[in-house]
Every structure is written in structure tokens, then in C-alpha cells.
Specification:
heterotrimer, A: 245 residues, mainly alpha, 73% helix, B: 231 residues, elongated
Chain lengths: 245, 231, 46
């Protein structure tokens, strides 16, 4: 009944009821959450701790995948989505950048919260101003600014253009912050997995970490999908409201 | 006389910069506000430190460049705020000039304003903190120019965006400050080196960062600017 | 081996809180938006 009414509304994209895609917590997100929970349960109870660092080393099964997903999947999408929007002017690209930014903010928040909790027992300090930590922190601030900027602009196209410009500039900024801090001595541990000469993770730890990467990547995809659905719904509702007024 | 031709990129930029500077010269609002702010900031910073525990020479560079970033930001909002009243921006957009020249003109006016605040703040810091720069002062001036260029390019672009938003004055620092890090950190580190009389060579890497930042963001901001003023 | 399991649990719980809070906010926002959409439906019906 309401379906037919929605269809008769004089607005683009209202072929289905606005209600239909409201479920952002769908089967994919459910699977992703279960997968992450399973991997983390494996990390806590079924993976041996590292001998020198103790149990706190297991923080790294959240910290590292979150950092990789946030920094190397979500953040590039903000800049790429923005740049593509300026080129193609497709609203979906703007929604992609917007959603990726918000999810990057979530993952980087997790990185910034779990990092000090690992640093305190292992390094003996909550925080240190080395290149990685500093650039992650300021990237977090930039993403926060990005989100606030979006909230401060009414016009949809203006919002999309401004945030695209900010997203592109931010991608240029990160190497500079990294470089600025790099000129100081840095004490962040080199990623032990990627350094060939360093003692390798045990096979069991490596498997847990690989599974964690997979699970977090799946979580990212599911979250992004849900956030995109929400953005599409919001845009449709706003278009309908504007059409009604 | 030949019929009037529209001015070129730099001629138009120069006209816009001159217009803004004339307005600023007559009102002196932003300049004095920023100047007083930075002088106050410099002296307050001196007093919150225990001079027997930390030598003034150790905090002076950090104070100078932090205050510089904040004072510069105070005036950046004005650049496009001016054009908002009586919708003067529409006139600029209708003018037969390249859009890039609006950016260049605004940035140039901002540069003059930021550089003049800096030109008074540096001697003030030298005076208040009893510094002895010697020949390093010239290099410090050069660093000041590079830092001002970096601050102004990014700041001008962001002020052209935030001016159209709600709570513009609050949003500008939030967006711009992270972008000032690669300006403020190298400038402060280089000045600290100069202050203790280090070799010029030890300062070069920091100056390289500043130059790279200016070039990269100079180009990026000029390219990005037309996207921020479409209608 | 140092005894620091407390930090591990704190980190896992903190991460869960950040993530759970975000998903909750997303669900609430989507629900509010759907309600606004329904409101348009009922307005156009009358």
C-alpha cells in the first residue's frame, strides 16, 4: 500500500518505499561481527602469548588490522572518492567518500585507544611522539574536521565539492606530517611481520593475525555497505522532503 | 586607445590584492587585532614558564611559530569574509578574469598581512626573550617567508570554503591547524638550530620540507580553488 | 612473562565499545531517517 504511494511520489529514486533499505545491520554485518569475534576469541584463548611481551601483545590482533584497514583501505577511499566526484559529479562517489571517512574515523579511534593500552605495559609510556603515532593522530583530527565540515554545509553539491577538496589535500598532508616527525628519532617498532631479518611470529600467531586481517577487512566492507545504505536513504528522504515543501 | 582587454592572471591577482590591502590599510582591523594578539601571546607565554627551570632560548622558537600560526589564522577569515557583505563575491565571479587569479590575489594580500605581523613579532620575541641571533636573523627571515607562504596558501583556500559554512570562525582553525604542522614544526626546529648557532647545513633539511610544502600545496590549492567557488 | 592481561582485556573492551557505539549510532540514525521517510508517506496520503 505505502509502496504504491511512494512510487507515485514525484521524486527521483523513489521507486521503492523509503523504509526498505533502513536495515543497516544486515546479514553481512552480522557475519562480519561474528567473524571478528571468533578471531579475537581465538586470539585471547587459543593463541600463545609472545614470551617477552606477555598477554598485552595480543592487543596487536586488534590494533594492527584496524590500522591497516583504516589507513590503507578507508582513508584512500576518502581521497579517491572525492577526486572521482570532482571529475564525474556522481553523488554516489560523494557518499562513498563520506562513508569511508566516517568508518576511517571509527577504525582510527580504535587504533588510538588500543595503542596506548599496549604502549603502557610494553614501552612504559602511554604515548610517544614518533612519526606513525603523530601522523595517525593528526589524520584522525583531519577526519574529524572533515566530518564537522560536512555537517556545517547545507547545500549538497557544495558539501560534496568542499569535502572532496579537503579529502584530496589531506592525502597530500599525511606524507608531510610523516616527514616532519621522521626527522626526529623514531621509536615505533618496525612492523615485525614485514621485516625479513627480524624474528618471525610463530606459525600460530601468524595464522591468527592473517585471520584477523581477513575478518577486519570483511567488517570494513560490511560497515561501508551499511553506511552507504544509510547515506542513500538520507539523501532520498531529503530529496522527498524538499520536493514536498 | 585599444578597447579594454580583460587583465591577465597576474594582473587581475594584483588588482584584487591591492583592493584588499587598501581596505585593510584603511581599517587596519585584522592587522592590529593579530598584532596585539601575537604580542600578548608572546609575553603571556614568557610568564607561564619558570625562567630558572627552562631557558628562554629553549622555548622562544616554539612560542614564536605557534603564535604565528594562531595569529595568522585570526586574519585569514577576513579575506573572504570581506566579499560576503553586499555579495561582493558575485562581482568578482562575474569579472572577466581567471578564477585562479582570485585565489592568487587573496593569497597575496594575506601574505602581506601575515608577513607584516611576523616582521614585528620576530623582533619582539628577540627582545622579550633576550635572544642573540647575529647573522642567523637573515636566515630566520627567509624561513619566515617560506612559512608565511605555506600558511597563506592553505589558509586562503580553507577560508574560501569555511566562509560559506555555519560557525565559520570555529571551523577554519579545526580544518587548517593540522595543515600548519608541516609549516610550524620545520620553522620552529630550524629557528631553534639557528639560535644555538648551529651550522647552516643542519638547517637545510627543515628548509627543504618548507619549500616542498610550499610548492606542493601552492599548486594543489590553485588547482582546487575553482572547485570551491562554483555555483 | 610479564603479567599484563588486564591491559589486553581493557583494550579489547575499549575497541568493542568504540565499534558498538558507532554501529548503534548508525542504526539509530537510519531508523530516524526511515521514520522521516514514512512521515512523508503519510503526508502525501492525506
Amino acid at each position: 500500500m505505502s509502496d504504491t504511494l511512494a512510487r507515485s511520489l514525484p521524486s527521483a529514486g523513489a521507486s521503492r518505499s523509503v523504509k526498505a533499505p533502513a536495515a543497516v545491520f544486515d546479514w553481512l554485518l552480522a557475519i562480519a561481527v561474528v567473524a571478528v569475534a571468533a578471531v579475537l576469541a581465538r586470539a585471547i584463548w587459543f593463541t600463545p602469548p609472545e614470551a617477552l611481551q606477555g598477554e598485552a601483545q595480543k592487543i596487536f590482533y586488534i590494533h594492527v588490522p584496524s590500522a591497516v584497514v583504516g589507513l590503507y583501505l578507508a582513508c584512500p577511499l576518502v581521497a579517491i572518492g572525492g577526486a572521482m566526484y570532482l571529475w564525474l559529479r556522481d553523488e554516489r562517489l560523494d557518499r562513498l567518500a563520506e562513508s569511508a571517512a566516517e568508518i576511517a574515523l571509527v577504525f582510527l579511534s580504535i587504533v588510538l585507544v588500543t595503542g596506548p593500552l599496549w604502549g603502557k605495559p610494553i614501552w612504559g609510556t602511554w604515548w610517544t611522539w614518533d612519526a606513525r603515532l603523530t601522523s595517525t593522530l593528526f589524520l584522525w583530527f583531519v577526519l574529524l574536521g572533515y566530518t564537522v565540515l560536512r555537517g556545517a554545509i547545507e547545500d549538497r553539491q557544495q558539501r560534496a565539492r568542499y569535502s572532496a577538496v579537503l579529502g584530496i589535500l589531506a592525502s597530500l598532508l599525511v606524507p608531510f606530517i610523516h616527514l616532519s616527525v621522521r626527522l626526529f628519532r623514531t621509536m615505533h617498532p618496525q612492523p615485525i611481520v614485514l621485516a625479513p631479518d627480524k624474528p618471525k611470529l610463530s606459525a600460530e600467531m601468524g595464522l591468527t593475525l592473517s585471520l584477523a586481517f581477513l575478518a577486519f577487512a570483511l567488517l570494513f566492507v560490511a560497515l561501508l555497505r551499511g553506511r552507504l545504505k544509510y547515506a542513500a536513504l538520507r539523501d532520498r528522504v531529503e530529496a522527498l522532503e524538499a520536493g514536498d515543501a | 586607445m585599444s578597447p579594454a582587454r580583460p587583465p591577465g592572471l597576474f594582473a587581475a591577482a594584483w588588482m584584487i590584492a591591492r583592493k584588499d590591502l587598501a581596505i585593510e590599510y584603511r581599517t587596519r582591523s585584522a592587522f592590529f587585532a593579530s598584532l596585539v594578539f601575537s604580542l600578548l601571546g608572546v609575553s603571556i607565554f614568557y610568564m607561564v614558564w619558570d625562567p630558572t627551570a627552562v631557558r628562554p632560548i629553549d622555548i622562544a622558537p616554539g612560542v614564536l611559530w605557534t603564535i604565528f600560526a594562531f595569529a595568522g589564522m585570526l586574519g585569514l577569515h577576513r579575506a573572504f569574509g570581506l566579499e560576503l557583505q553586499t555579495r561582493a563575491m558575485d562581482g568578482l565571479l562575474l569579472a572577466p578574469i581567471p578564477r585562479e587569479s582570485i585565489f592568487l590575489g587573496k593569497a597575496l594580500a594575506n601574505f602581506v598581512y601575515v608577513a607584516s605581523v611576523l616582521a614585528i613579532t620576530i623582533p619582539a620575541v628577540v627582545l622579550f626573550y633576550n635572544l642573540e641571533f647575529g647573522s642567523g636573523l637573515l636566515i630566520l627571515g627567509g624561513i619566515g617567508v617560506l612559512a608565511a607562504i605555506g600558511l597563506v596558501t592553505v589558509g586562503t583556500l580553507f577560508s574560501s570554503m569555511t566562509v560559506h559554512t555555519r560557525f565559520a570562525e570555529l571551523l577554519l582553525p579545526m580544518l587548517a591547524l593540522p595543515f600548519f604542522i608541516p609549516v610550524v614544526v620545520p620553522a620552529a626546529q630550524a629557528s631553534a638550530k639557528l639560535l644555538v648557532g648551529a651550522e647552516l647545513q643542519t638547517v637545510i633539511p627543515w628548509i627543504e620540507v618548507l619549500v616542498a610544502f610550499d610548492l606542493m600545496f601552492g599548486v594543489a590549492c590553485i588547482l582546487a580553488f575553482p572547485f570551491t567557488i562554483e555555483d | 612473562m610479564p603479567d599484563n592481561a588486564g591491559f589486553m582485556f581493557a583494550a579489547y573492551i575499549a575497541a568493542a565499545l568504540v565499534f558498538g557505539g558507532y554501529v548503534l549510532s548508525l542504526i539509530v540514525r537510519a531508523r530516524t531517517m526511515a521514520r522521516r521517510g514514512d512521515a512523508i508517506d503519510s503526508v502525501s496520503r492525506s
